[in-house]
Structure formats: structure tokens, C-alpha cells
Specification:
By secondary structure, the protein is mainly alpha-helical. Helix content is about 55%, strand content about 10%. The chain has five helices and three strands; from the N terminus they run H-H-E-E-H-E-H-H. Strands 2-1-3 form a three-stranded antiparallel sheet, sandwiched between helices. A hairpin with a 2-residue loop joins strand 1 and strand 2. The radius of gyration is 20 Å and the shape is elongated. The chain starts with 8 loop residues before the first helix and ends in a 5-residue tail after the last helix.
Length: about 160
């Protein structure tokens, strides 16, 4: 008894390539949404909830990128807050420098790029990234599970 392949090898390869592209797109979409949610949680808080902006650079340096084995797939805008154009530049530069650190994984990376971000969080006891990192870690599995479910639903619609 044997099983005969009723579809051509090229059709099967095409199916798998399409399925992989769908999965990657759904994960990219989920990570992008999570990145935007992280940005909002960090940047859109009052001074009482976070820190007092003197220049806007720290808040402007906050953003995210999604890496696919070292290749940047998407990057947040790093919009300047107030006079924070230096912060925006620092954020973009940090993301560019991080690509090599994420060459072995598919990753969402959220940064606060000003060199004093750790100081503000540690010494001044202000929340820069800490609470958002904890929150993101608590929701990422659920968001990825939903992305996979969406991908499976889309893949199931493909005709061989």
C-alpha cells in the first residue's frame, strides 16, 4: 500500500512558501501592534507617572524595531517631543546598532536610547521601560497565539 501525491511538487512548494509568508506577516503584524502599544505606554504618560521632560530627548529616544534574523523589518517613527530631535536620532542609531545582536532570532526590540535612561530609572526611581517590559512579557504569548490562529485560518483558505 502506498500513498500517491496528487499535487505537483511545485504546487506543494508554492503552498509552503505562501504559508510561511502568511505566518511571518501575521507575526510581524502582532509585533508591530505590540510595539505601538509599548510606545504609547512609555511615551504618553505624565511626569507624575514617568519623569519630567527637560529637553524631550529621553521620550523622543523611545521606539521599537522588529528584526527578522538581523534584518530590520519595521521601525517606529521616533517622533521628536519638544526639542528632542537628538533623542530621535539616538533612538534610530541604537536600533541600527542592535541589528547584529538580533541576527539569530525574530525579535521585537523596544529601546530608550538616551545614555541616561538607566540613571533616570535607577537613581531617580522613575519608570522608563521597566513596567512596560513586564507588561509586554505578560501579553506577548497571547498575541503570538492569536497571530498563529489568524495565520492558520488564512492558510486553510489556500487551495492546492
Amino acid at each position: 500500500m502506498g500513498i500517491k501525491l496528487a499535487t505537483s511538487q511545485s504546487a506543494l512548494n508554492s503552498f509552503f512558501e505562501t504559508a510561511l509568508a502568511i505566518i511571518k506577516q501575521e507575526i510581524l503584524t502582532a509585533f508591530a501592534k505590540l510595539g505601538e502599544e509599548c510606545n504609547a505606554r512609555i511615551r504618553d504618560r505624565s511626569a507624575e507617572e514617568s519623569w519630567i521632560d527637560h529637553t524631550g530627548n529621553l521620550r523622543s529616544s523611545i521606539g521599537y524595531s522588529i528584526f527578522d534574523y538581523g534584518r530590520k523589518q519595521l521601525e517606529s517613527a521616533f517622533d521628536s517631543i519638544g526639542e528632542g530631535s537628538n533623542g530621535s536620532q539616538e533612538g534610530r542609531q541604537m536600533i541600527a546598532n542592535l541589528a547584529k545582536e538580533y541576527s539569530q532570532v525574530y525579535a521585537l526590540v523596544v529601546v530608550a536610547a538616551m545614555n541616561y535612561a538607566d540613571f533616570v530609572e535607577a537613581k531617580e526611581n522613575k519608570d522608563v521601560l521597566a513596567s512596560t517590559e513586564l507588561w509586554a512579557r505578560s501579553v506577548v504569548d497571547g498575541k503570538l497565539k492569536l497571530a498563529v490562529e489568524r495565520a492558520v485560518n488564512r492558510i486553510n483558505q489556500i487551495k492546492l
